[in-house]
Amino acid sequence: MKYNGTIKGGVVVLEGDATLGEGTRVQVEPVETPPAPSTLGQRLKRFSGAAKRLPNDMAQNHDHYLHGRPKK
Description:
Elements: E1 5-8, E2 11-14, H1 40-44, H2 62-67
Antiparallel strand pairs: 1-2
């Protein structure tokens, strides 16, 4: 049987109602916690500066270049 728990004050504390008899031999193996989810900005940062040879006014007039709207 497998039990889950955490370390609190240097002692393994099992989850739920799990109890083991005094003197029971156990094997403890740390579990890797997944990294905290990154923000959208952090995930998109790898694309920063990837576009080459864009018009100088692309940021201001992106609607013109993408959708054909009048330039600002």
